[in-house]
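User: Here's a structure from my thesis project, written as structure tokens. My advisor, Dr. K., wants to see whether a designed sequence matches the one we expressed. Can you design one independently, without my sequence as a hint?
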């Protein structure tokens, strides 16, 4: 059984990495998130070996820090479990709508369901 880990090499770090993904193409769109990837996926050395995750959770769409942190935590967990099935490219999840007030459990459930669906689309 493969170990589902989330090392530092599986994350985007530099603003330039985020910028190249945002200038790239849209892989999938859901009710809450848009998933972007760079157009030139084979040019960077890290991209060819394993997928990497980036998240843009803006304060204007999720004004409370608790909400933003919960969203990020759920996205990381979904990515960690599906990472072995994904192609070796950068994926940036961007929250594109304001999160309406609801319980944290309900929000986490919605985010996880959408993250799993979007990652399944990205794996194709």
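Assistant: Designed independently from the structure alone:
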């Amino acid at each position: 059984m493969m170990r589902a880990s989330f090392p530092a090499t599986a994350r985007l770090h530099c603003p330039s990495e985020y910028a190249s993904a945002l200038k790239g193409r849209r892989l999938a769109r859901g009710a809450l998130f848009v998933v972007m990837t760079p157009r030139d996926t084979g040019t960077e050395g890290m991209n060819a070996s394993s997928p990497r995750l980036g998240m843009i959770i803006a304060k204007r769409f999720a004004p409370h820090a608790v909400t933003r942190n919960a969203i990020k935590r759920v996205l990381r967990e979904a990515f960690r479990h599906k990472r072995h099935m994904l192609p070796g490219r950068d994926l940036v999840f961007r929250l594109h709508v304001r999160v309406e007030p609801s319980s944290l459990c309900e929000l986490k459930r919605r985010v996880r369901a959408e993250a799993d669906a979007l990652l399944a689309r990205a794996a194709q």
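When you compare it with your expressed construct, this may help: The helical segments are 15-22, 45-49, 65-82, 104-123.
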